[in-house]
Amino acid sequence: MRASILLPFGSLNQESGVVALVANYLRSIFPGVSQLVCNGIFSVCDRDAELSWRRDIHACQRCSHDQQRLASWANLDLMRLSTLINADEIWETKKWVTCLPSAELRTAEFHGLNLFELCKPSLENRYGSSTAVDMTHQAHEQFLRRIMLGALRMCVIGRRFNNRMLADLTLVAGETDFITASFAAQARKQGRGVALFKWDVATRAVRVHHPYNGQVFNCEFVLEDVTSMRNDVMTWPVELVNVVRDLLRFLDVSETQLKLPLAR
Questions:
Q1: pLDDT tens digits, residue range 87-121?
Q2: How many domains does the chain have?
Q3: Is the N or the C terminus of the chain less surrounded, counting Cβ atoms within 10 Å?
Q4: In terms of residue numbers, what domain contains 12?
Q5: Are 3 and 195 in contact (CB under 8 A)?
């Protein structure tokens, strides 16, 4: 079995601890578990909201380091986004979005994926609602074009990554921004299994969405800083191991694949 994870905002996401925990356990069983790491290839992203949408020169470095810290704790192989898109594709995607008429911004598609739909979560994060975007407002249109460019490039990256890795299961934090929404949509289009991990404020739990059947697993075990734990699965409490195994059974990882000795 091969698995991959995407945590583009590192520990900023409440669900990141659970994703890293599950990924670490999977890595203890299977050698082929990779983490996609954003290393500052987008001119704007939802983490910019931390700085009132005014990114400083160190923001991407801090975020990339945060993602790598989680990957290191979980013993995952790293794959940086910048290695999955070439110079010609960077130029072509920039030209395509720049030349797109304003009237077509809401309907533009990339291989059947509507880019505006992929950008809706980020528009909601910035403006409160995707319907609040005013195409006659220059700043609104410029922001939309920037995140559409990011979504387009993430689709290109996702397609290449999926063709290369052929992951049976991908764990994605959120789908509440254009990066994760684009990657998840592209993976589904290629027939890859995507398990979404979403923080639910009302229940104070991480809701894990099954890749195929629409069912949801509520994980009430939430970690503020998973890297403060020991990363050796064999040292984890039995109760924690059981939670992770229950979650993986829910995701259809077979019982025979999960047979690791429980911690003492």
A1: 999 999 999 999 999 999 999 999 999 999 999 99
A2: 1
A3: C
A4: 3-258
A5: no
